[in-house]
Design brief:
Elements (H helix, E strand, L loop, with lengths): L1 H11 L19 E2 L15 E5 L10 E3 L2 E8 L2 E8 L5 E9 L11 E3 L2 E5 L4 E6 L5 E6 H5 L14 E3 L2 E4 L8 E5 L5 E5 L17 E3 L6 E6 L2 E6 L5 E5 L13 E3 L2 E6 L5 E10 L2 E11 L10 E4 L2 E6 L5 E6 L5 E3 L10 E6 L2 E6 L3 E6 L7 E6 L12 E3 L2 E6 L2 E6 L2
Parallel strand pairs: 1-27
Antiparallel strand pairs: 2-33, 3-4, 4-5, 5-6, 7-8, 8-9, 9-10, 11-12, 12-13, 13-14, 15-16, 16-17, 17-18, 19-20, 20-21, 21-22, 23-24, 24-25, 25-26, 27-28, 28-29, 29-30, 31-32, 32-33
């Protein structure tokens, strides 16, 4: 009976409301909002801005939305913080210190909310678990001190932790702890995974976040690290397979896309590219078969993300570019694009109610119909708040569009 109650408690703490966006890439880790009834065209100047708040520090963190609260990260006065805001008006509820913020612009990752706890990783690898209501720190780890962790290059840890049942899965990037599984309640180590080196790319963690796959009948964690795409058995962290062909030596960023027995992955820079892998095997031994590979000039996603919808992948193509395009997942053939869009430089995207939300680095925010019939622009506006590259990914939750930038967060009404 006691064991049953403990299991029931774990289930109850993981309940997610339909309109919540409790982690990076949303409730199903696919960058798609389930919401409907949103504007299908924007008026001139874009949707109505409900509110805008400041004081959130520098960095490129996006937001998580859950339980009437918004969670984000930022750096103020050389300290990185986890912030909680009231969803209705953006007023600050609490802030909790993550760690020193002495490098670059600030934190890159997005918090993960699970029941009454929220988890976040700082630029320098401080992993903190805090209470959702009060911000009280419950436990912490440090990737470098506790796991000899390492990033593949200079821009700091950018991962959003994955909660899977009673476990937290994250990527310190250490030689004997590339990925670790921790007890989400107290941070105690469950397993650590050692990954063999590859000829292409760099040692250490990449800038991606873990996705779950059941390809080949084996539950596995798929991640992009310095040496490309890897897969680990969810049960014990056993290395299953790796694919380094798309790895670059600068920054491997986008989270892979999972579809049945297939994994699609893409990276930026001149030595990046895109590939579709088919995973098969027996008795727990899996092999990735390259269905196709496309070099960097043909197809690549820098760091804006990709979305799979009805067998088609929508993304921004090009290094330091976000040229909208649509390709067929299984064949790799272009459906339309790539083509120049309304904005310039990289584009971060999300999806809701039949539309793609393309946020360009230059501050151009656009609404594009998710159609196989070609590029269809349904609205745009120029962001008029603050400064710096708009790298934080847009979020749609509760009928609102959230846009985070240095120091500020703006909320727009999509109804």
């Amino acid at each position: 009976m006691i064991r049953f109650l403990a299991l029931a408690s774990l289930v109850l703490t993981s309940v997610v409301h339909a309109e919540d966006w409790p982690r990076w890439r949303g409730p199903n880790n696919d960058n798609k909002s389930p919401e409907t009834g949103l504007l299908t065209e924007w008026p001139e100047g874009g949707p109505k801005k409900d509110w805008q708040v400041g004081g959130l520090g520098t960095g490129y963190s996006s937001v998580a939305v859950a339980q009437g609260k918004i969670f984000t990260l930022g750096r103020n006065d050389n300290v990185e913080y986890l912030f909680a805001l009231k969803q209705s008006d953006g007023s600050q509820l609490w802030s909790t210190r993550l760690g020193a913020g002495t490098k670059e612009k600030g934190p890159n990752g997005t918090p993960t909310v699970d029941g009454n706890r929220v988890y976040a990783v700082s630029f320098e690898g401080d992993l903190v678990c805090a209470d959702v209501e009060s911000g009280r720190e419950i436990w912490r780890k440090n990737f470098q001190r506790d796991f000899n962790g390492k990033m593949m290059s200079m821009w700091g840890y950018s991962e959003s932790p994955l909660i899977d049942g009673d476990r937290l899965i994250c990527t310190p990037g250490g030689p004997n702890a590339m990925v670790v599984a921790l007890n989400k309640l107290d941070g105690k180590l469950i397993w650590r995974a050692k990954v063999p080196s590859a000829q292409k790319g760099n040692d250490g963690a990449g800038y991606s976040s873990i996705v779950i796959s059941n390809a080949g009948g084996v539950k596995q964690y798929v991640q992009m690290i310095g040496h490309g795409v890897i897969s680990l058995a969810a049960e014990d962290g056993r290395f299953l397979w790796g694919y380094a062909k798309i790895a670059n030596t600068t920054a491997n960023v986008p989270s892979p896309i999972v579809s049945g027995n297939y994994i699609f992955a893409s990276t930026g820079y001149s030595d990046g590219g895109s590939a579709l892998l088919e995973i098969s095997g027996s008795r727990g031994r899996l092999t990735p078969r390259e269905v196709y590979y496309k070099n960097a000039k043909t197809l690549q996603n820098h760091h804006g993300g990709m979305i799979l919808l009805d067998g088609k992948i929508y993304m921004g193509h090009g290094h330091n570019n976000g040229f909208p395009c649509c390709i067929d997942l299984r064949s790799g053939n272009p459906v339309w694009g790539p083509q120049r869009g309304p904005g310039t430089e990289s584009a971060a995207i999300t999806y809701a109610d039949g539309h793609l939300y393309f946020r360009y680095q230059d501050g151009t925010m656009t609404l594009i119909e998710a159609s196989e019939d070609g590029f269809k622009l349904k609205g745009k506006f120029e962001e008029d708040f603050n400064w710096g590259p708009r790298w934080a990914h847009p979020v749609v939750s509760g009928g609102k569009l959230y846009l985070r930038t240095n120091h500020e967060l703006a909320c727009f009404n999509l109804k």
